[in-house]
Structure formats: structure tokens, C-alpha cells
Amino acid sequence: MRFRRAVLAAALTLVVMLALVGSQAAQAQTFTTLYTFTWNGFQTDAGYEPVGQPVVDGSGNIFGTTEQGGTYGGACEDIGCGTVWEYSSSGTLSVLHSFDYYDGNFLIGGVMLDKLGNVFGTTVEGGSYGSGTVFEIKSDGTEFAMNSYAECYTHDSLVTVAANCNGGNDSCDRGYSWGYYMPVDRAIWNAPAAIPEVCYGQNSDVGGACVTGAGTEYTGHVHVAKQGYSDAPIFDDLYNCGKDMPKISWVIPDLRWSDHPYDNQDGFGSNAPFYGPSWVGDIVNAVGQACGGKYWSTEPTAVIVVWDDWGGWFDHIAPYKVLRSPNETSCPQTQNNPNGWGCGYTYGFRVPLLVVSPYTGTQGPSGIATYISGACGAAGQPSCPNNVFPYVHDFGSILRFTEYNFGMPYIDESGDNGYADQNAPDNQNGNIPLSDFFSLYPNQRTFVPITTLKDYKFFQGYYETTGAEPMGPDNDADSD
To answer: Does this model's pTM top 0.70?
Structure first.
């Protein structure tokens, strides 16, 4: 069985005022405008809105930042992500770096210089997680974003294992085919970029660009829009009947196709269209109908739809379990967490989980109805919330179900302390996590297509038709 988110100003003037300290009486002062930043309705190369305090080196060169502008517009739309600049003692302003969100965004502070002339600073937003970066620009002009795309996932993953990496010179694949489909390869939802065994290869330098040579995990599995594909790579592969889909696929939307709030899609302002439902519906339809419906019938496929956060809405149901330690040096091994995993970890607000598959539903006298895991409150059902085993699921449940379905080992093959897969709340007493979603097995239900406002071809040609550039989802850190 084979189951798969502006402050605008017109003209801003940099004013540098130096206080002269001495015993002489104050003399007449001369005011000089050294440089004028401009904004013409689109981002400018030098940037605009110089908010932070500039610094001066021993040679009289002035260094500072702009909050917005720069040469790169993509992820920051038409306002730019900000710049670091130098105004030389000879009277010339040069841009040392233009930010592109993925290495930082929104510079409201100045910079610092060390004795060697290296420039240091911070950004408020951007970076791998949208929460800002610490950066260095060396005196020789080279740039290094200290915590942008640094390795943060230092152990094996669902689909990679260090034992297969061959010193970083070869694939780290576990041997199960997988694919990661996304709109742009530098986005905060680019999970493979955070996994050393995928992005860098084992034992390679931290912070470097992802490996893209032949035979690497990244090149072989990460499918990016407009890089040998249409604007929506997932549909290219689903409708390519001469090519088998990977056993496991992750599909990431463009921001404008997601359910994240975004109030200026395609210039519509508050009347922005919502493409998220069509995006998901078209993927489901492709699974059910592409290539004669083989991914529904002869190669049954499960579509698992999840959200990265709860959207900021109030949740009236408290987290079902909080694991706390009685002290700061040990984790209690109790009935609810027998190996101490998750000590100090608190479950957050709930997020939706939708499962679509040939085996999902409830058989009733009038046909197959929608299935609700942990249904409660109605006649004959438990009171809400229904936290009865096995109706509580977390992201580890998806991992463990995938492992079970394909005969894969736990991520921590030693079974010592384990990770989220081994410690999923429904991975107990011999239960298969998420198995309650597939109660119709082995009988298959007939696929019923979803009516969508936009079909899959709209997404395949979206950037060419609209003139928009691919945008990673959730560029606004405040939308989380």
C-alpha cells in the first residue's frame, strides 16, 4: 500500500553631525548635506530611510544602514529589504550589501566596526526563521550571515542517514524515494536547507550554500519553480505519466497560494484573491485523476494537509499534555513519557489536519461520509475535548505513519531516546499512528473531484501570466 507572509517616504537625507569638543568659544558652524537618499516608488539601489546611527572609522569613512530599499525586490516586494552602505572620505557612497530577506530584512539599528574594519549588525526580520539575523561584512568585502541557514537539524531525518553520506561526497539517502516541491529555493519553509545531510552533506562547512552538484541529496530531490520546471513543479510530475512520483513528497505553496493572510496579492489590496483552496484542491484532483487515476487506484496515495501554525486564532481547548521536570537537571520518566522525551516541552495551539485517501471515510447506510478523528459532543460520543487514545495526533504521528507504511526504521534507529516519530501520542500499545483515518482499507472509495476556482494550469503559468516573482511563504514574521 502506497500512501504522501511599509513605511514609505519620498526623500530622506543623511545628516552626519559631529560635536567638536574644546576650550575655545563656539565658532560658526557649516552644515553640509553629504548624501541624499531617494525613493521613486520602487526600491532604489542605495536604499532609503537611514534609521540607525552611523559610525566613522579612523580614515573618515562613514558606515550605516537603510531600513528599506536596495537592489533586490523579490521577497520584499517593491520596497526592498534594506542596505549597508559606506560613504567614503573622498565623498562617494557605495552599497556594501543589499538584503534579500533570506539573509535579513528591516535594519533599524546601525552597525559596529572592529579593529580590522569588519562591519557587524543585526536585522529585525528575515533569515531562516523570519526572526532576524546577525551579520558580518568583512573588510575585504565578503559577507557572512551568521545565523542564516546554519545547520540546525543535526541528526538523521526521515529520509536521510549519516551512515550513507560517504564523508559528504555522496548521497545521504536512506533508499526511499522522496521529493520536495517549492516555489523558491531560499525561503523559510525550505526544510532541506536546514538538514546537513541534504543541504551540505555530512561534515561540510556550516553556513555555505546548499550543495547542488551531481549526485547530492539537494539536487536530486528538491524541485524548484522555474528551474527546469513550470511555475508549479508538483503538477509537472503528477501529470507526467511516464515518470513515477516519489514515494514521499512535500509540497510547499507560494505565499500567494497559501492560507496565510496577505493583503496585497497581485496589487488587489484588500480585495486580494484567495488561491489556497484552489491550490490544495488541484493537488488532490491530480492525485485522483492524473494518468487515468493511477495514484488513486493502482498506486494508492494519501494526501496529508497540515498548517504550520494555528493562525493566531483563539483555541478554547488547552494543550492536552505538558511535560515538566521537577528540577533543571533531569527529566522525569513517567507513564506518559516513559523515556523522558519532551521534558519541558509544551504542546501549543492546535492546527488542522486533513487526510484524503482512497481508504479515508466512514461507511454508513447512505454511503461514505466524512470521518472526524476524535469526534465528540454529539449523541453517543464522548464529551469534548476527546483526548482519548488514539485520537490525539501530532506531527510525529505523520512521521511514524510514513515509517510504518514504507517499512522504514525510526529516525533514531537505536531506539534509545527517540524523536517525534517514536514519541507520537498515538504510537503506543501497538497502535499505528493515524491508522484511524484509514478504516475503509482494503476497500477503496470512488474518487470525487473537488470544484476549484483555478485549475492546475493557472498555477503552472502563474509567474509568466502575472509577471510576479516566486515568493516563499510566510515572509511576514508577524503573521505567525
So the answer is: no
